[in-house]
């Protein structure tokens, strides 16, 4: 019996189209270098608290923004 | 001698200078300048970062965290109330503070605040529990309405951001101080040199927020020290009570008991 392959989903990450097979938010973020530290995640205009990352499941078409601190006046 | 302490949204501060973290030639120069300024509040912002740049935001965070200052995130670059409100919420989550320097711009040429959108966003953010520091024009009625909305602090511009033109409308700024005596007022934007800051402080302003004048000086740390001293001097002068201007001369040397031929008029 042949194992069923995981189909990637299409997302928008910081305004760039992207495909992933990491459906879990924390795993997805880690895949792109956001493991720990200061950043905030916004999905479809909703802020996702850090405590919710491990259990958050991504869906096709999600629009993900990851924001970090920068200098400002 | 140090001017008196003051309170901003319940936070007691000794420095009356808020300083920005942008435009410095290097991160080290920024840190040196902020330390030299003696500022206890620094402004910061937030942006999307592409995958692969995840560390640069963290590096900046580590630097500003080591400075031990209060953070005042801004909503720079927002042109609508909705955009500014969204950015403020993201900033609160990111920086873990309910302080927000609220910028809602109305014109891209001089980066002038949009007074209508600013007031709208202010009301919503205060209802959401934010402590709003609105970057506003020096319009008296706007400032009165921002105060009525619940702002404890107002930050009228001296001149457009980054111009270094100083206080373009001292009359308007003086009027604000006179008409809103209980309000904490900072001049934000347009300060180009320490004497501009002295002028604002002598008018009775509680503090100054600046960035470019220090960051673009040839020696930012030295300029930061100059602003630190000038802001303190201006505040001391205000607290000491500045003599009124007169139209006619008044001798400073006593004339009593002078020989009669030396007494005039």
Keywords:
heterodimer; A: 73 residues; mainly beta; 5-stranded mixed beta sheet; 1 helix; 5 strands; 36% strand; elongated; B: 265 residues; alpha/beta; TIM Barrel; 8-stranded parallel beta sheet; two-stranded antiparallel ribbon; 9 helices; 10 strands; 40% helix; globular
H-E order of chain B = EEEHEHEHEHEHEHEHEHH
Strand percentage of chain A, roughly? 35-45%
Overall structural class of chain B, as computed from helix and strand content, comes to alpha/beta
Across the major sheet of chain A, the strand order is 2-1-5-3-4
Low-confidence stretches of chain A: none
The average pLDDT value of chain B, as a whole number, equals 95
CATH topology of chain B: TIM Barrel
What is the count of helical runs of chain A?
Answer: 1
Cα-atom radius of gyration of chain A: 14 Å
| Separation, N- and C-terminal Cα atoms of chain B | 41 Å
Helical segment tally of chain B?
Answer: 9
> Strand order within the widest sheet of chain B?
5-4-3-10-9-8-7-6
Q: Which parts of chain B are unreliable, with pLDDT below 50 for 5 consecutive residues or more?
A: none
The total number of structural domains of chain B is 1
Most strands sheet of chain A? 5 strands, mixed
Helix content of chain A: under 10%
Looking at CATH, the homologous superfamily of chain B is: Aldolase class I
If you compute it from the alpha carbons, what radius of gyration of chain B comes out, rounded to the nearest whole angstrom?
21 Å
Structure description:
The complex is a heterodimer of chains A (73) and B (265). The mean pLDDT of chain A is 93. Chain A has a 5-stranded mixed β-sheet, with no helix packed on it. By secondary structure, chain A is mainly beta. The longest helix of chain A has 7 residues. The radius of gyration of chain A is 14 Å and the shape is elongated. In chain A, 10% of the residues lie in helices and 36% in strands. Chain B is α/β, with parallel strands linked by helices and 265 residues long. Chain B has one domain: Alpha-Beta Barrel (TIM Barrel). Chain B has 9 helices and 10 strands. In chain B, the strands form 2 sheets. Chain B has an 8-stranded parallel β-sheet. In chain B, strands 1-2 form a two-stranded antiparallel ribbon. In chain B, helix 1 packs parallel to helix 2, helix 4 runs parallel beside helix 5 and helix 7 runs parallel beside helix 9. The longest helix of chain B is centred in the C-terminal third of the chain and has 21 residues. Chain B starts with 5 loop residues before the first strand and ends in a 25-residue tail after the last helix. The model of chain B has no long low-confidence stretch (mean pLDDT 95). At the A-B interface, strand 5 of A face strand 4, helix 2 and helix 3 of B. Strand 5 of chain A pairs antiparallel with strand 4 of chain B.
């Amino acid at each position: 019996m042949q194992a069923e392959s995981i189909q990637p989903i299409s997302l928008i990450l910081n305004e760039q189209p992207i495909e992933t097979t990491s459906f879990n938010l924390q795993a997805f973020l880690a895949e792109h270098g956001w493991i720990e530290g200061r950043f905030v995640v916004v999905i479809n205009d909703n802020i996702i608290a850090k405590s919710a990352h491990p259990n958050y499941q991504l869906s096709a078409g999600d629009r993900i923004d990851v924001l970090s601190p920068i200098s400002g006046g | 001698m140090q001017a008196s302490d003051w309170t901003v949204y319940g936070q007691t501060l000794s420095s009356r200078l808020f300083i920005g973290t942008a435009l410095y030639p290097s991160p080290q120069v920024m840190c040196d300048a902020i330390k030299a300024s003696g500022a206890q509040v620094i402004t910061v912002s937030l942006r999307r970062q592409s995958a692969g740049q995840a560390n640069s935001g963290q590096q900046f965070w580590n630097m500003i965290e080591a400075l031990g200052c209060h953070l005042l995130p801004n909503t720079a670059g927002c042109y609508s109330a909705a955009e500014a409100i969204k950015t403020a919420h993201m900033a609160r989550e990111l920086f873990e503070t309910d302080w927000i320097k609220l910028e809602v711009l109305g014109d891209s040429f001089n980066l002038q605040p949009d007074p209508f959108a600013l007031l709208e966003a202010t009301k919503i953010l205060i209802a959401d529990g934010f402590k709003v520091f609105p970057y506003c024009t020096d319009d008296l009625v706007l400032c009165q309405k921002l105060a009525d909305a619940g702002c404890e602090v107002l930050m009228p511009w001296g001149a457009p951001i980054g111009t270094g033109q100083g206080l373009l409308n001292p009359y308007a700024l003086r009027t604000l101080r006179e008409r809103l005596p209980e309000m904490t007022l900072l001049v934000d934007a347009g300060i180009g040199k320490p004497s501009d800051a002295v002028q604002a402080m002598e008018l009775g302003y509680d503090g100054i927020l600046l960035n470019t004048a220090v960051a673009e000086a040839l020696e930012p740390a030295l300029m930061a020290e100059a602003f630190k001293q000038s802001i303190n001097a201006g505040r001391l002068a205000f607290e000491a009570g500045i003599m009124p201007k007169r139209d006619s001369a008044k001798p400073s040397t006593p004339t009593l008991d002078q020989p009669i031929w030396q007494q005039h008029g």
